[in-house]
Amino acid sequence: MNLSGTLAPEIGLLSQLRSLNFMWNNLTGNIPKEIGNITTLNLIALNGNQLSGSLPDEIGYLKNLNRLQIDQNQISGPIPKSFANLTSIKHLHMNNNSLSGQIPSELSRLPELLHLLVDANNLSGPLPPKLAETRSLKIIQADNNNFSGSSIPATYNNIP
After folding, report:
1. For residue 44, which of 70, 73, 64, 25 has the smallest C-alpha distance?
2. The whole model's pTM is what?
3. Residues 61 and 37 sit within 8 Å (Cβ to Cβ)
4. Residues 10, 45: Cα–Cα separation, whole Å
5. Contact at 8 Å (CB) between 93 and 70?
6. What is the DSSP track for 6-60?
7. By the 8 A CB rule, do 17 and 43 touch?
8. How far apart are CA 67 and CA 44, in angstroms?
9. Cross-referenced PANTHER family, in alphabetical order (predicted)?
10. pLDDT tens-digit series, residues 22-32
11. Are 61 and 88 in contact (CB under 8 A)?
């Protein structure tokens, strides 16, 4: 649609919104924390924009969210540990950004997680061995980061 501009904090007033889809536009600025007020959301698709800033912790409290696509933006900072509360999430697509810090081991508690895409960021530290305990995980893509250590944790052999 070639939309431009920012996501206003007032977006949080759309209390019955189920799908927030602004893929492949020219949105800039931060993802407003007020998105966390929309408890009915099951899809956030903001990939392919020019969004920046850090990920709001408040997204981690959207119990109905099953897909978060923020790939191909300029988002920086850590992956919030609050994302471990996304008990309905199946797809976490956060690749091609500037995320930093470690992948939170708490993400291993996500019972429905199928895809964890964090490639092409600035993540560091070791890969969390506990991630292999995520029973539903089918794809983890974490290349092109700055992880420490010279090997993939042995527990990753248990990922189907």
Report:
1. 70
2. 0.95
3. no
4. 18
5. yes
6. E--GGGGG-TT--EEE--SSEEEEPPPGGGGG-TT--EEE--SSEEEEPPPGGGG
7. no
8. 6
9. SOMATIC EMBRYOGENESIS RECEPTOR KINASE 1
10. 999 999 999 99
11. no
Long-range contacts of 12-21 (CB under 8 A, 24+ apart): 12/36, 12/37, 12/38, 13/37, 14/38, 15/39, 15/40, 16/40, 17/41, 18/42, 18/43, 19/43, 19/45, 20/44, 20/45, 20/46, 21/45
Task: Give the chain's domains with CATH numbers.
Answer: 4-158 (3.80.10.10)
User: Tokens representing 58?
Assistant: 């408040």
Q: Give the Cα separation of 94 and 121 in Å (integer).
A: 9
pLDDT per residue as tens digits for the range 77-94? 999 999 999 999 999 999
Place of tokens 């540990």: 81
Give the Cα separation of 108 and 140 in Å (integer): 12
Considering only CA atoms, which of 63, 12, 64 is closest in space to residue 35? Answer: 12
